[in-house]
């Protein structure tokens, strides 16, 4: 189902991110917003979804009453197989990530720098549960994109010149999907690519902690 | 024709061979594959000063959490303990030492231990604080981290099916770290939901060869802890 | 619900993607697990200047030997070529460069390639001539050899059963190097004795996840080469 | 079947070596003479036989007419499973060897030194097919024993002060079974433990290329 028409900017961001997935890709969707991307893919879309705890070919999430106690994704949701799914151990699961077989990962973020650095696992003194599989996903997926609100709860920008929090990986983020815009990481820093409906480039720049290059001509909306 | 020895043991006797101060690998990623019954018996017998190696710290009130709450765990090597507020509090208060690894590197360090490799070289985490204090070497002009192998005094494994020689098979995402840990300890203890006679597990269906397993403990009950978590 | 793509291909088209000068991993230990049909097609298409990585050189008149006899192989990385007098002669006459590895280290170097690890550290062969020219590092006071990962442009794999996504299962000792090589190449081509529809291979029975496999080629015939060798 | 009474000294050597295997061991028998050791174990003897190409629990060798084309041992013999056998890949097969799960290996030899060094894979210029799995077996099995004729075809000793051929492993051989004697490697060098029937300690010393310590008192025979 496509939700490009929904008035909820987060849903539109997630729907837009779903269009980043090309047929035949192997994709890992991080916990939180990224997981919702799958709901925006057309039925029967050919993509292999990977989860770190040892599965390729994730099928629909199941309610507790229908769940298999032995079948979860890395976020703890009860999932199901599809025809052609495979289970494997944790070493094989990350062999897939590190050896270049993961085409795309979509991750959440605390901060993203204009250099493509990502911080998404630790806020010293407040939040330090460990990085899980995030470091390898962020460092080794062929394409790393981030889904995040453009600012934090206090309105502070999450897209920055430099990250202030402990890094997950350096220079690997290629693109950021937010509730306001689609922003690419380029050799010159952040570049605005698309705007959420009703948002202006100026509003995006004001919510961004580093310079934002604007495209020539009209800016597409999502 | 030769035969293969029977390694079945009671859970009590198997766990009794684990001493105070032991380093113990514990299978499981969240609930699936966690050897809850072996952990219960470890709690009951009272071994303390333990170093545990597990992907996570389970959730509060489950599995590893019982041992942490009872003060039996000196150190935990893990990748993510975000679902266990007790463990995070114990870490923050200095009651529990926690060493974090990148998840796939934890898997590889355990696998290296099981494969008799002293260490692996990787670029994972090179630009992060997880690289702090680790030896670096340059190979073909590339800086790499030395990640040393992990081995344990004991590994606690949860299998779906097993035969009496200790050949193991897992199910779905309950596999996770179990086959890796089942190769990387001096004393490998596996609990199994189903115990099969020799020959009951076809040789191509074996996921952990019995050669690596020391004790095989059939479960008489699948307790609530193994069930679906209703959040 | 998503679906998984179909990777079936003809043997001709699959092998046509392998260029001259390629480094190619070839599964098999002796006869079992050797992809004889893929090798035949490689011989027919004429790719040359190849570097082959295989446990052994098969026996004279079989598998790899055809390529060596036709002068297509520049270099062979192997553990033991004792059953192939042609290969030994070609090596002794300087027509074939051979790099020998300890068998388990060849397996680990390939596995490291498939696991995205640049190298492993080992003490295997430290006191032997196989250590000559290899980088040494000291870890925790122990001298170790750096064994670098192997990756290939293509891997030729023999599976017993496979589905259309490329999930593979092997049988008996035809498994050997196949699952390792099936993770360690840019282009992984698997021939299979039986092709199953999606869902025909239960997710727990998959030995090589289809994620690693690029082309799946059903065999229409099991030629004599696959048979029992009568010596 | 026990062949301690056979007049063939090689068969007696192999039968004696079989008594080195304790119940419950995991054992790898090298190609050639060592493979024959299994024929001298009592029926049903509890031992797990390993072969490098990926099997634990080797059953009887089969003639071509009954063979499974996919089931061989590392020497190429067609073998069969027993109840409880397992197949695995080449990485797992050597993980077993290197991680200390292989209790015993019995290997052939070109030369064995009084220090426990072994040379069994290469004769420069004459025989260099590669070491296969021999280096890891010789270096990592918990106990390494050698089965060999005491001298080569020309009558030259194979038990030497130092090996002259390229080494397989250093200082790992614990015991040598020959057609003449059982000899241990001790910190002091070779030590005679047992004699083949009809052989004297002096004959063994004359066939050995380094000093041989004799036990006090009677020397057992096999």
Automatic annotation (TrEMBL), chains B, C:
<dbReference type="GO" id="GO:0008410">
    <property type="term" value="F:CoA-transferase activity"/>
</dbReference>
<comment type="similarity">
    <text>Belongs to the 3-oxoacid CoA-transferase subunit A family.</text>
</comment>
<dbReference type="InterPro" id="IPR004165">
    <property type="entry name" value="CoA_trans_fam_I"/>
</dbReference>
<protein>
    <submittedName>
        <fullName>CoA transferase subunit A</fullName>
    </submittedName>
</protein>
<dbReference type="InterPro" id="IPR012792">
    <property type="entry name" value="3-oxoacid_CoA-transf_A"/>
</dbReference>
<dbReference type="InterPro" id="IPR004163">
    <property type="entry name" value="CoA_transf_BS"/>
</dbReference>
<dbReference type="Pfam" id="PF01144">
    <property type="entry name" value="CoA_trans"/>
</dbReference>
<keyword id="KW-0808">Transferase</keyword>
<dbReference type="InterPro" id="IPR037171">
    <property type="entry name" value="NagB/RpiA_transferase-like"/>
</dbReference>
């Amino acid at each position: 189902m496509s939700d490009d028409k929904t008035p909820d900017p987060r849903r539109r961001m997630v729907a837009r991110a779903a269009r980043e997935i090309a047929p035949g890709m192997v994709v890992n969707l991080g916990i939180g917003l990224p997981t919702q991307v799958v709901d925006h893919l057309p039925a029967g879309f050919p993509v292999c979804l990977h989860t770190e705890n040892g599965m390729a070919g994730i099928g629909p999430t199941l309610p507790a009453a229908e769940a298999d106690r032995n079948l979860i994704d890395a976020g703890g949701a009860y999932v199901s197989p599809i025809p052609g799914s495979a289970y494997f151990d944790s070493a094989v699961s990350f062999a897939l990530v590190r050896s270049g077989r993961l085409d795309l990962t979509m991750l959440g973020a605390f901060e993203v720098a204009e250099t493509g650095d990502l911080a998404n696992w630790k806020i010293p003194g407040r939040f330090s549960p460990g990085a899980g599989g995030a470091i390898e996903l962020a460092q080794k997926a062929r394409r790393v994109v981030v889904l995040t609100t453009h600012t934090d709860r206090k309105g502070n920008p999450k897209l920055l010149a430099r990250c202030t929090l402990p890094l997950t990986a350096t220079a690997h983020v290629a693109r950021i999907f937010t509730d306001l815009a689609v922003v690419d990481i380029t050799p010159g820093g952040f570049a605005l690519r698309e705007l959420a409906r009703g948002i202006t480039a100026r509003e995006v720049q004001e919510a961004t902690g580093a310079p934002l290059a604007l495209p020539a001509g009209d800016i597409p909306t999502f | 024709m030769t035969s293969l020895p029977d390694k079945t043991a009671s859970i009590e006797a198997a766990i009794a061979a684990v001493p105070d101060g032991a380093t113990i690998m514990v299978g499981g990623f969240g609930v699936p594959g966690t050897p809850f019954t072996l952990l219960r018996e470890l709690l009951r017998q009272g071994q303390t000063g333990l170093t545990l190696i597990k992907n996570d710290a389970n959730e509060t009130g489950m599995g590893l959490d019982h041992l942490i709450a009872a003060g039996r765990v000196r150190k935990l090597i893990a990748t993510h303990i975000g679902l266990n507020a007790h463990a995070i509090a114990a870490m923050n208060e200095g009651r529990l030492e926690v060493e974090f690894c990148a998840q796939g590197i934890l898997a590889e360090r355990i696998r290296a231990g099981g494969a008799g490799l002293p260490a692996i070289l990787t670029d994972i985490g090179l630009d992060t604080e997880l690289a702090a204090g680790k030896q670096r070497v340059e190979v073909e002009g590339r800086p790499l981290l030395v990640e040393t192998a992990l081995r344990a005094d004991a590994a606690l494994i949860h299998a779906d099916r097993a035969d009496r020689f200790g050949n193991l098979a897992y199910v779905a995402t309950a596999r996770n770290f179990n086959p890796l840990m089942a190769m990387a300890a001096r004393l490998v203890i596996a609990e199994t939901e189903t115990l099969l006679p020799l020959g009951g597990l076809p040789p191509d269906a074996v996921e952990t060869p019995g050669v690596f397993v020391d004790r095989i403990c059939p479960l008489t009950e699948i307790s609530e802890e193994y069930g679906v978590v209703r959040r």
